[in-house]
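[User] I wish I could look at a protein chain and see how it folds. I have put the entry right below:
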Amino acid sequence: MLKAVLESEERIMHFQVLGKLMGHLAQEKAWPGYACGLGKEEYEALEAVIQSQIHRNGWFTVKEIRRSLNAWSVELTSENLKAWTSKYPIDSQSPKKIGLIMAGNIPLVGFHDLLSTLLCGHIALVKTSSNDDQLIRSFIKVLIMQDERWNEMIHWQDGPMKGHVAVIATGSNNTSRYFEQYFANVPHIIRKNRTAVAILDGTETEEEMASLAEDIFAYFGLGCRNVTKLYLPMDFDLDRFFKAIFPYNRIAEHNKYANNYDYHKALYLLNEDDLLENGFLLLKEDRSLHSPVACMFFERYADEGTLRKELETVKEQIQCIVSKKDVPFGEAQKPGLTDYADGEDTMNFLCGL
């Protein structure tokens, strides 16, 4: 049986160092010294990559990239990584080539799949999205700077995926049909469009309402864990919602977001749809789960038990539910290592190959 190039303890140690580096960059700190794993010039070059992404992808502002880096720095600690991987037989794996096809909707969105693959000792064949190719590559270079043996475990795929024995692919509902057909003969995880919904019961505190606003506006609402649909009690006062989200009003200064707001407002007005708006978010009563960027759909409910039974019938479209009983308010875009996308245990999949 072939062994992984790096021992599991080494892999965990290197990702722990990477996590600390991400934390420094998330907090916009000056070069903290060689302990971060980089020299000063290398550290500043990585900061320059962060600063330059807005010119490649208009949604990747420095603020949102730092948001992602901060979330990862919290997870990539030795304690967290050891607790997570201890549940899986990562030391008994023979390396296999795993194709990873990544999305690019939010910064570093494919990092969890890469992390899982590498910690299991497999070889990652990585096909990045054109919307998010530099960030992933830049942070993998940091791993390679720590130990050149990572070069043997990570290979970039610029053309069609080849040589894989299994695939993890993330895309839209349309591309998923192509993936299902193309990778039908190998073990695979194929992810489609999902979203998050929030269930309010009317007893939420001002702090919880403010946290819900972050679940909505983080990454401009582009993530599969962003809340795009609200379920409200019959007597819920919408002024409470508008008050809670007001601190995010400057989001309308972002051109791409503002363009979405203007486009959908014009469309809804032409259709003579009932609409509430505050200059940066369009609130529309609609049964659909997926609202467009700069919009929020809502429904009122009379009985929560009945509502949850209805949501169970569309659970394959829902990434998570935010409420007092489910994912806490403000935590939707802060998933832990075990919060697997689509509820499918990636580590178990990789260890079972």
Summary: The radius of gyration is 21 Å. Residues 8-193 form a domain with the Aldehyde Dehydrogenase; Chain A, domain 1 fold (CATH 3.40.605.10). The chain has a mean pLDDT of 95.
